[in-house]
Write a structure and sequence with these properties.
The chain is α+β, with helices and mostly antiparallel strands. It is built from 2 helices and 3 strands.
Length: 104
C-alpha cells in the first residue's frame, strides 16, 4: 500500500512540475492575442451598391489593413443617403476616439 501511495504522490508532483514548466516556458506567440500596433483611420468605400462606413486599423507607414470594423452600410439609392452618411461618419469618428484612447 505504501508503494502505491508513493507512486501516486510522485505522479502528482510530476504533473504539477510539467504544468508549471509548460506554463513558464511557453513562447510569447502562444500568449494572449494582442492587436498589433497601428493607427485607426476613418474610411468609406462602395461595395455591391452600398457605401460602407468603416473604421480601419493600419500599420504605421503601410496601407495594409490590420483590422476593420464596419459601422454601417447605406444603399446608394437611399433617399436619406446624405443624412445617414453624415450620421455614420460622426459615429465612426466617435468610435475612432474611443479605440485610440484604449490603445493608449
Amino acid at each position: 500500500m505504501v508503494m502505491l501511495e508513493a507512486a501516486l504522490v510522485i505522479g502528482v508532483v510530476g504533473l504539477v512540475v510539467f504544468w508549471l514548466a509548460s506554463l513558464l516556458l511557453r513562447p510569447a506567440s502562444q500568449g494572449p492575442q494582442v492587436s498589433p500596433a497601428g493607427t485607426w483611420r476613418v474610411a468609406h468605400y462602395e461595395a455591391k451598391g452600398e457605401t460602407r462606413v468603416v473604421l480601419q486599423k493600419v500599420r504605421e507607414g503601410d496601407t495594409r489593413v490590420i483590422d476593420e470594423h464596419v459601422i454601417t452600410s447605406i444603399r446608394s439609392d437611399d433617399p436619406e443617403y446624405d443624412d445617414k452618411f453624415l450620421a455614420a461618419m460622426d459615429a465612426v469618428r466617435q468610435r475612432q476616439a474611443l479605440f485610440e484612447a484604449e490603445d493608449g
